[in-house]
Amino acid sequence: MSVYLIDSPVDDSHVRLRADVPDIISISVDDLLSIPAEHLVIADVSIYLAHRWPQPTIVLAHNHQGYELVNAWQRGAWAGWIRDQLPDSLAPIIQQLKMQHQHQSDSRDLPAAARLQKRLIPRPLDIPNYQIEHIYQPASALSGDWLDYWMTPDNRLLFYLADVAGHGAASSLLTGWLAAFHGSEHSPQALLSRMNRLLVTQNAGKHITVLCGLLNPVTHHLEWCSAGHYPPPILIHPDRTTEILNSSSFPLGLVTDLTLTTQTTSLEPKSQLLFCSDGAIEIFTGGTSEQLTQLIETLSSRRFDPPDHLTDDLTILSLSRI
Amino acid sequence: MSVYLIDSPVDDSHVRLRADVPDIISISVDDLLSIPAEHLVIADVSIYLAHRWPQPTIVLAHNHQGYELVNAWQRGAWAGWIRDQLPDSLAPIIQQLKMQHQHQSDSRDLPAAARLQKRLIPRPLDIPNYQIEHIYQPASALSGDWLDYWMTPDNRLLFYLADVAGHGAASSLLTGWLAAFHGSEHSPQALLSRMNRLLVTQNAGKHITVLCGLLNPVTHHLEWCSAGHYPPPILIHPDRTTEILNSSSFPLGLVTDLTLTTQTTSLEPKSQLLFCSDGAIEIFTGGTSEQLTQLIETLSSRRFDPPDHLTDDLTILSLSRI
């Protein structure tokens, strides 16, 4: 990254001559077009405000130019220097701005990453007598929650919801990891055991909680298990009464030999099974058990509408028998 | 997000009374400690400089306080307003700062994501007569390149280098995806075919180029194939002459039925096989073929030292027979 000083009617050669920034290059504002966007520019605040350029910029001003300074600030300049009160050392500030620039360009493709993440979630399946739906709402750009489902070769529906410890970009890396298991196994036990073995082998330092189910859409028989996940599955009966399906083992990634307990039940007509991430209870107030009660109450009365601002990723996977 | 106005000797009640920001709350600077870090603070520039607080802040100043303004700016204040020249409308600026705040907190865990990504790369394997090494240097926080290797059940080394189209967070999501194939297959054909089928099924909209090899460390027989990857594998012979191993098919993710051509060779004592991502040639000048020539020349004379500043992710996987 080079540093360019824009020629101006005010003589700023003393900036260029500062010993600790040896390579400041003088340039006219018209020649800026030919300079790559990652280089640093130092320019008089009035010239900056009269033009637009993409390079990160430090503006030079006099003490009484407060209004110009705040405008340059709002327009995206990176720092300001007062001409007769230049910082003792320019190099550390330039170094800090370079790091800030790197940081900003790192975050620039988070929206693209978020689109790709949503794209990896499977599209709705057409299953006779059943409807599978989901809500997938990250607290920030990227989610640490995941969900997936597919039909097994013997025409059963395998579906799961997972919550990677933490949130944001680090956890989302493991949602990409989870997406690679799509279609690979045909039972909750086999899927979760394989995920667990690999997670322990790779020593990722993050555990994952999972709720996983297997439905036979002809007999309506359901088997399911939980790997350390909270909240538990919620079953809404046809009369809108609710049932919490309790069962648990360790989360994935903690122990080499994971013992999973499979539970079974049957889905009646007009019943609904819900898997939720803990972000779904955190939108309610009170202790954990009060939060769960409110979530169940909300889901069973069909008024669930997640708020815009979340403190944790929120994901709900719903399977309804018609 | 609420907006707090810090009490100051200067009467700033006209800010609080602006009609388009209805809910500005007056507060003393000492009470700021009890306010969550995501709320917005408006404060006199001198008070801001005399204290430190974590909340995003707009400073109020007079036009002649340029020096205080640039200091507040450098200290991390988010914007400045001149008291007698307040913007016509405060609400859009506050809205913009809120979005900027969200964007900044999104990018805050990129370093943690980068550490996790590096952690998923396997540690060096102890293979008699062979040494496996790598360079893995992202252009930004996260890399769109990947590499992996493992011993198959019949004691052969399966190893590959992959380059996901694009770079940064979006591409890194698919490096997490790739990491989940660790140990899953025992031949280049089987591995790349399975990756390709899933990538096409999931319709991720990103292709992946791969170089994949399988070494028998007893017979020194090597088979390898390329899925649309450039540069090709480079073989350095014991006398330091070099050979480009040409072969290619489509990248992963483009066609349902991927036909891969497997090539074979044998590794002599003191020979070295190198898989490189295209970031390794982009550090050289000239056209693609000049760049490749310079890379090979550099690698064969053992002076390879990647520069600090990269425009593309750089990854090299090296397998040397001792």
Largest sheet of chain A: 5 strands, parallel
Spatially, the strands of the biggest sheet of chain A line up as 2-1-3-4-5
Structural class of chain A: alpha/beta
Helix fraction of chain A, binned, reads 25-40%
What is the radius of gyration of chain A?
Answer: 28 Å
Biggest interface goes to: A-B, 62 and 62 residues
Top CATH class of the largest domain in chain A:
Alpha Beta
GO molecular function (chains A, B): phosphatase activity
Keywords (chains A, B): Hydrolase
Protein name (chains A, B): Serine/threonine-protein phosphatase
InterPro entries (chains A, B): Bact_Sigma-Reg, PPM-type-like_dom_sf, PPM-type_phosphatase-like_dom
Overall description:
2 copies of one chain form a homodimer. The longest helix of chain A has 17 residues. Chain A has 8 helices and 15 strands. With 322 residues, chain A is an alpha/beta fold. Chain A folds into 2 domains: 105 residues, Rossmann fold, CATH 3.40.50; 212 residues, Phosphatase 2c, domain 1 (4-Layer Sandwich), CATH 3.60.40.10. At the A-B interface, helix 3, strand 5, helix 4, helix 5 and helix 6 of A face helix 3, strand 5, helix 4, helix 5 and helix 6 of B.
